[in-house]
Amino acid sequence: MFESAVTELGFKYGGDLHTEILVMGGGFAGIGAAVGAAKCGAEVLLIEKYGFLGGMATTAAVSTICGAYSADKESKIIGGVRDELFLELGKLGGANEGVDFGQHRADTCDHHLLKVAIDRLLAHYEKIQLLLHTQVIGVKKESGNIQYAIITNKEGVFRVFAQKFVDCTGDADVIPMVDAPYVIGNETGQVQAATTIFKMGDVDFTEARTFTRQQYKDLAQASIDKSEYAFTRTSGVYMESAVGNSVIANLNWITFSAIDAKQLTEAEIEGRRSSVEYSKFLRDKVPGFKDSHLSEIATQIGVRESRRIVADFVLTEEHVMQGATFEDGICWGAWPVEYHDAAENRTIKTYLKQNYQIPYRTMIPGNVDNLLVAGRSISTTHFANASTRVMAICMAIGQAAGVACVLSMQDQVLLKDIDTSKLKKQLCEQGAII
What we know:
By secondary structure, the protein is an alpha/beta fold. The protein is 29% helix and 24% strand. It has helices at residues 2-8, 28-39, 81-91, 111-122, 205-208, 213-225, 261-285, 317-322, 385-388, 391-411, 420-429, and strands at residues 13-18, 21-24, 44-47, 64-65, 95-100, 105-109, 128-131, 135-142, 145-153, 156-161, 164-167, 182-184, 198-201, 237-240, 247-250, 293-297, 307-309, 329-333, 337-341, 346-350, 356-359, 371-373. The longest helix has 25 residues, at 261-285. The N and C termini lie far apart (47 Å). The mean pLDDT is 96.
C-alpha cells in the first residue's frame, strides 16, 4: 500500500530499511547520539541532508566550538564524544583547544578539517550506518509510537523501521510530524538573529591584532552614518582561523524564520550579499585586511534558534543563571546567555557565575513514546536556549539521547521511564562529565 502510494505520486520507492535506532540529522547532537548508542552496542542509522556531517560547525562554518568549559574557565565540563572528536581533529592539525576569549574559553577549528575528523571518528564504529544526502520527510505514528520514518535520497523514498528515533535536525523537524507541542522564539515569535559566516584569507595578523573590538565598532558605526556600505550591524566579531592566516568573520545579522522556505531562501541570498559588503569594509577600513581577500562564504546561513519542544519540564533562564542541578542531569552547561538581538542591534552576553545542569526530561517530547529530541531544540525558555544551544553542549545532550535509547530497549521501558541513574553511570563510563 505504501509502495503504491509513493509510485502513484511519481516517486521511486526504494524499499524498507531496518535498524534499532534512527538518528535524524548529523550535526553535533546527531554525532553524539549515534556514537553514544553505538558504544552501547546498538545498531544505528544516521542520516544527514548534506554531503558531510557537523551541522552548524561545518555547513555554516561556525569555527568556534563553544560550551566545553566551566563558568570560571578553569576546567572542562564536556567530555565523552567531544573528546574523541577533538582527538581526531588534533591529529589533522585542525584544532586550537581552550582559547581564552577574556571572560570565557572556547575551542576553535578549521571547519573543513572538522568534516574529515568526523568521518574518521565514525569509522571507528561498525554499528553506525551513515547515509549522506538523505533526510526525513515524514513519519507514520500509531498508538503513540513512530512505526517508521519516511526518508528520501537520490535512490528514492524509503521507510525506516526502528525501535527508537532521535530528532537531531536542529529545527525539530519531526515534532510537527507527530503533533507534539513546540514553540518558536519568544512570546511574540521573535527568534535570535542568524549569521552567514565568511572567511578572509591573507590577513596580516600582526597588524590586525592591534585593532580592538571597540575600534571596529566605532569604525563600522561611522561608515554606517556616512552610508558608505550597505550593512547595519556593528557588534560583530572576527577571529583567527585555527589554520593558516585566515580570519573567520561573524559580522552580519539576518532575522527570519528558519522553517519558512521563502524566508530561508531570501535570508541565504541576503547573507551572501552582506558578506561581500562586509568584506569590502574590512579591506578598505580595517588594519591588517588591506591585502586580504574574501576566500569563502559558508554553505548555509547559521541558524541560532527555531523550534523548541515543550516537554513536561522546561529549563528556564533562572535555572541557568542560578546554577541549578537535577537528579536527572545528563550534562553541564556554562556558556553565557548569549542573545543576538537584531531588532535592537545589540548582543547581550550575560556571563554565568557557576555551571548548571541540563536534565534528561528536556529531551522528551509530548504525544510520542519512542522519540527523543537532542540539540538546540530541547525544552527550554527563549533565553535559556541562548546558553544551551551551543555545539559542545548539543553533542553532550546527543550522547545522552543515544545511550537513553539503548537503555530503554534493554530494560523494555518507555523513554520517559528509564532509570536515569543507569543513564548517568553509562555516560560516565563513556567519558562524559556528569
